Every structure is written in structure tokens, then in C-alpha cells.
Gfo/Idh/MocA family oxidoreductase
Amino acid sequence: MAKTSFNRRRFLTSSAAVAGGAFSFPNLLLHGQNTAGKKLNLAIIGAFGKGQSDTQAIALDHNVVALCDVDKGRLEQAAARHAKTFVDAGLTAPATAPKLYQDFRKMLDENHKEIDGVIISTPDHTHFPAAMWALGYGKHICVQKPLCNYIWEVRELHKAAKAAGVVTQMGNQGRTMEGQRLAKEWIEQGAIGTLKSINLWTNRPIWPQGPLKKLAAEVPSELDWDLWLAQEAMEPYFEFEIPEGQSTKWGNKVHPFNWRGWWQFGSGALGDMGCHIMDATFSILGQAIPTKIEVVSGETTDLCAPTWASLKYHFAVGPNNPEPLVVSWQDGSKDGKPNKPEKPEMMSAMTDEGWAKASSGMIFQGTDALVYEGEAYCASPAVYPDAKFTETKIAMRDGKIKKTEARSPKPNNPQGEWAHCIVNGGTPSSNFDYSCPLTEFVLLGNLAIRSGETIVWDKDAGKVTNVESANKFIKRAAYREGWMK
């Protein structure tokens, strides 16, 4: 199996090199000027952790003029690592270091004339106010996935970005990769016959979820808890009790990692991984929104997402599914075992050990074959049975399966792609016209999970039509004053 995997990676690498396919570049240049080669002035909100890797993606090509993090210790670490990026590359660090802030509002209010774009890599709940504050100053924005953790916020953000006329991007790197484009081209051009069903899964959550209990605790000295809460109602700082049987690896503090399981701040396994794992599905189904979502899950509370969930998203007929189609999503562990589908018969050549290693993945089941990817980003998809994969590669070589999808100028670098488009013109792969409805598709699963019932979704009205109580989860219950630009 190791040899086969290597050959598939080599195939994808070589095919990417001859990808063809144009990336569109309309005349959308910075400030209307001819700015080829210009270095942007960028600000980073959420500077450490994921924000650090997002910064490194553009640090050598552009100017990072401001860093913001509510945790003073992490902010200082981010500044030190930013300087080290240049040393590691054998370069001299810029003479002027980034300005440091704990409050993104103050950072933008004081420096908006200097800033061209903003990268937002904070906990989910802060994405919306930070992005809206930046849009209030007309700044280009790149926001980590999911764009928001409430559907109403996603739609409001989309409208505001359109009105501002800026370049937008969501940080889901699979959308920039070659593999996702190949999977779509194979399916569209008949490599697996007729698409019949789709299975998606992840081992997340790997952090505590389910019936968690808040515990009063002392605020860490370097954390500004008031700023961390952002638009959420003020409440005392807390830690939590980890239920027996759940992992203690990440500790019992909400900041800086475990916020993911709390409805206030995160969006569970779906929000954490859905915008990656559901991305190829969203593209292949013509960016459709499901009409109905069925759910079975572990215990869900008003505070936290469950430790596991199984969803069925129902889609109407689309460009690549001539009949209605079901997308099945599974996450977490159930009864001590990974909550994932059984290995399909068409994949009998794969060992059980190889199948077990696929902690996240996707299967596009067709009448004649299937497309499989055993990780989150659809970076290296394959066709099964193996004979069908051989046929597919020959069809690509002979031009019978064509390159129809535009390729990214910055593969595996959504921040770099976004900055490239600001400077040179073009439309980022996961711009908000694409990623806002993708995020809505993902978050609809949380509407079903939180309601505990099958829901029917009216996309045009933006509401659940069969379970009125589910609609209270579309929008945050309240927004604290002083956080919306």
C-alpha cells in the first residue's frame, strides 16, 4: 500500500505540473492602480496558533504591519516568531516591527489608513465582528474557516463584503489544491459512471464536547477575557469539568483550543472540519444547498456540541447527480469505535489497516467506480477499483478527460492566493460568493443537531419550515454593544 500511495502522489504532482486551465484575472487591482509586484500592508487578528501559520504564508512577500491577539503572551510569541521567519529564510527582518495590539478595534481605528488587508484567525465567534470592523474601513479580508458560527452572520458578512467591493477569501486550503479539481473533472466527465451517493467523515472532535460543566476559575494573567468574549455577553471566566472517558490531552481551559466544542464560541466538529471535508462535495454538486437534513447524535446540550453525530443532507437533482442524492456525514466516536462508513466493496484492494488510518475522508460512489480520499482536503484523490484509476489516468493522458477547472496561482496557500489577487487582479478560489454558501451548507448540520430533529430548509427565506424552534439557532441570541462597526 505504501508503494501505491507514493505512485498516486507522484501522479498528482506530475499532473499538476501540466495542469493547464486558466485562472481568471479580471481588472480588480488594488486602489485601481497597476500594482504588479506591490507589497501589501497586512494586519493579522489572532496572531498566534493558526494565525501564526497564516502569517508565515505571506510574511516574506508582503509587509505585516500589525499583529493583534487578546492573549499578551501569545502576541509576544507571535511577534518573535514573525522576526524569526526572516532569519530562517536567510533574510534581514524589516526595520520596522509590526505594531502590537490586544483589541482589533483599536488596531483598525488607529491604523486603517496604512492597512490594505486583514487576515482573521481567531476563535469562530470573533470572525464576524472582526471582519465587519475591517469591512467598515473597506479592507480586503481573509477569514479562517468557518466564516462564522451562525448562518445569519454568514449572510450579513456576505452582503457587507459585496457592498465594500473588496477581495475576500476563506482559509480552506483544499479549495486551492489540484486534487479537488481533478476529482470534479473525473466525476463530471464520467470516470465513475453516474454519481449515486457521497460519504464524508472525520475523527473530530478530539477536544472535550458533550455535557460539559462550567467551573469558576481565575483569569490567566496575560489573557484579556473581556476582549476574548467579544460580542458575547460578559460572564465570569471559566474552565470546565472533563467527563470520564474523554481526552484530557487539551486540558480543561476554553482558551486557546477547547472553545471549538462550545456553541457560544465554536461550531463543533462540523465547523472545525466541514469547510474542508465538504468543500469538494459542494463544488461537485454545483454549489447547491441541501433541502433537508436528518440527524442522529450523542447528547447535545444548550452549551456544547455532541461527541458524535451522523447526518444525512438531502440534495435535489443537480449538474452531476441526475437523481436526488444524499450526502452522509459522520464525526466523532460511537461506542468506542470511529463513527465512519464501512469500506466499500470497490475498495477491496485496500487493506483493513489502510482503511483504519483514514481518520477523515470522502467517498464519491458512482455506478461504475468511486473516487476516494482518505484525508480532509481532497489533496490526493484516487479512483477505485485500481483498474478504473488506470483507465482514468490514460483518459487524462489522451485528452479524453480534460482540464476544465481553473487552477490556483498559489496551491495550498489560501492567504497567498488572496494577496496575489489583491495585487494582480483575479478571484480567489474560496471568495465569499463561494465560501458563504459553503459555510451555510456546513452550519445547516448544526441546526439539525441543536434541534435534535430532521429539518427542512428554505434557502430563499433563510429559515427552517418544519421545526420552528430550530430557527432560534440561525442567529446569536444577543450581541454586546460596542462590537459592531
